[in-house]
Design a protein that fits this description.
Elements (H helix, E strand, L loop, with lengths): L4 E2 L3 E10 L3 H22 L5 E3 L7 E10 L3 H13 L6 E12 L2 E9 L3 H18 L10 E7 L8 H10 L6 E4 L3 E9 L2 E10 L3
Antiparallel strand pairs: 1-2, 2-4, 2-9, 3-7, 5-6, 5-8, 6-7, 9-10
Amino acid sequence: MKAAGNPDLGPVVRLFLSVNPPPEVIARLVTEQSSLRSRLFDRFGDELAVRWTKPSQFHITLIFLGNQFLHQTDRIRDEIKTTIAASQTLPTMELSGLGCFPRIRSPRVLWIGVKRNSQLEKLQTALMERLTPHLALNDRDLFSPHITLARIKAKRAPRDFAEFITELSRSQSNPIASWTAKSVSLMQSVNGSDGVEYRSIAEFVPV
């Protein structure tokens, strides 16, 4: 969606907070994505229309901030900086398991999960508490951590798609990858020639 503007309040930007994986984890995700692509095609062929996420777009959304006036970004940065600066370390991200949104039998997004941990939940809560008074956020803006691998374009998935994805997820005996986050990113969604692109406009690290 193209950001609109108000003549009095100025342009609007679409923002979210994320943890972005390092290069070695992106490489692992590319391998996993390629394997999944082959397995899905071998099983369903052209019956399943899929748009695969570009490696440069891999990220873990923490909080969706939505459309915000550009002049608010300095305040948003200050609040995020204060929150992250108070953290001695950032959470460890452990990738494991496959799933779909909104439901596995009517999928639109195919993702790899991020194992929940108390440090991650504490970080999300602290950011929500800091930003909500200024941006009118609510629990719907707090994301269940995951990395989107693909978007499914078919209105209805093949009959045994759910069972196939469930079995693939169960077959993962070990986490696909894990790393300790070094920073939190303020990201902007921007319309590009090939669809929506995500750009980091600020990085925040503990002190």
